[in-house]
Specification:
This protein is mainly β. The chain has 6 helices and 47 strands. Strands 2, 3, 6, 7, 9, 12, 13, 14 and 16 form a 9-stranded antiparallel beta sheet that branches. Strands 33, 36, 37, 39, 40, 41, 42 and 46 form an 8-stranded antiparallel beta sheet that branches. The longest helix is centred in the N-terminal third of the chain and has 6 residues. It is extended, with a radius of gyration of 37 Å.
Length: 704
Amino acid sequence: MTNIKLLLALVFAGLLVGCGGSSGGGGGITSSSSSSSSSSSSSSSSSSSSSSSSSSSSSSSSSSGAVTGVVYDNLLPFSMDFSLDRNEFFGGSNVQPADPLFVPAGLFLAISDNAEEPFYKVSSSGSRVLLNNSRLRFGNSAWYAGKATATATNSTTVPDGDLDLSTQYTITMQITDLQLADGPLEIRVDNNTTSSANSIFGTDSLILSLTPNEGLTLGELVINVPGAVTMGGTEIVSKHIDNHIGTPNSLLGFRCPSACVDTTLPSDQQVLPTGGGIEISSIVIDHPVGATLQLPLEPAVPVLVADDTAIDVSWNPVGNATAYNVAYNSAEDNPATATVVAGDITGTSTTITGLANGTLYYVYVSAKNAAGNGPYSNSLDDTVPAANPSVTPIGDPPTTPTGLVVTAGVEAITVVWDEESLATTYEIAYNVGTDSTSGATEVVDLSGTALIITDLEAAAAASTPVYVFVRARNGSGVSDYSASATATPTSPVAGSWTGAALEIFGTDGSAASGSLDKNNVTQVTITSTGGALSSDTRRHYFAYQSVTANDFTITARVKSVTANGGAVAEGNVSRFGMMLTNNITTGVTTFAETGSFGEIGFYYNGTPALVGSRAQMKETDVVTRSDIGGLAVGDWIRLQILDDTTNKRIRQSTSTDGVTFTQANSTTDFQADAGDNSWFWGFYAAPGANNVTIEFDNISITTP
């Protein structure tokens, strides 16, 4: 049988007062050594508490306010009916109050087995807690049961409380008066602060916040952890508690914040019935019949530090845990297939050894107790799983990459190099006309082994070579730069694009118009206004070429987009970008009659802002359109026609570097037959009320 201390703290913003109502007080706090003693329903808490008054009456007050401590012989069940007088309830004071209604500043003793243990320091007198006529009334204040220390709880320390809440538990409160305005009754576990995060349970420490608008009223409030919350026997479905929150050494806090009272009143009037607050006549905390030890909750994300062939792992403690498991996965971000490398760790840190430098590892932590293993941190079973922590052990720095090759393009160069086994990222330096890294332009944090460097107009015009260098980096350091490789970007060559304003069908918007401002093989600039693309209209300016092919890929970079005179948020019927189609004939009436059609680009919307967009004609002769999140000016766009010998398919993709492309469309269904080999492709604009200039470069078309 465990001897415990039950400490009651009344804590708020430096102000605390009790009002003495009964002079003799008999004992109002009961803790039973047998769970069978609480088998009756919680509604009988007042009678069960009063029946034990003789056992608690040994806690008597003296003229100086000193109190003899009381030893309680079990953690739960616990009941309290507030029939103690003020000195017994507060544990006495080292200063006799001048006004019997006010508790003075000073140290207050706990109701415990040590009458000399300091309780809490209060900076000034005031009244937001009232103990009178066997009722506890509080507002703009908080009080705690189960050992409330002056040290604030936090997310990394397990408190040493006196309530065993390791199994399911129930809190039953008899509410006799409410004057809360809009304020809630709040109940916290292992948190003696006003911030929900200051607990080993994080924000889950706030197990209930209930206002009158949500169902709080007079009568019996029952909180099952986990389980239903009922008021007067009726469940408040929206407040159902899903998780078990508690440990073998917990404390409970009860708070009614400033919204509960009229803060324009003096402090000693705020908690009176005319000022606000909540009044309760009893509280019972107990385990339901058949309560079993609960699994620990999921730990927070661990902290990882890479070392040579090792990873140091640390994490915050988890309530109700007796030990921890640590696991890692190098194949995938999935704890279900992870390797457990350390089990039954009683602390909150460990080191995983024997790892391979340069390999990415995902690390997970789970808590355990006698009931079993709880979920791993950031389990993939979460509704919205967070990214699991990962780290690459470090050792030697990488060596200088080899195989550097630079290829000339139109006002651009393409750079490739061989992979370096110890590298986590690469850095490129390039210098126009000078074979040196001094003064060079650097491109860092490259994850791949290729890069396209654009906007080299001046070097192309002057036929100046561009010198390129590469180096590798990891957590241990960076290699030397390689010897240079060089190429001279070329100037653009005149192209054969045709520009035309097309009125295919429909009357939405206004007539499209435009001009072809730059006409080079790999560069096109168009300026356009008017037009619309909707389910019943296709009117746009089009700079196009034709191609005959079964399979082909067209790629371009959106170099710039300029809204001449300012942008208007027109929405997704006013788009511009890259298009392919096998029909530009006018005089049809529907999209189904125009044949195959696919496009990728932008529209103005919102503030306004550019939004990525793509559309295609499906096999059902219906055009579908979707936004492309993250597409930005400066990115590459790509359209691919794929021939599967029965039908054509379309793939729409984007890239931030012109090297690695990500597919944007979820399905490749396309309204085109295997024999559809004649196409028009190029750059279109239907910007609606906007007058827009769009520059495209790095244009290419490839066939198998």
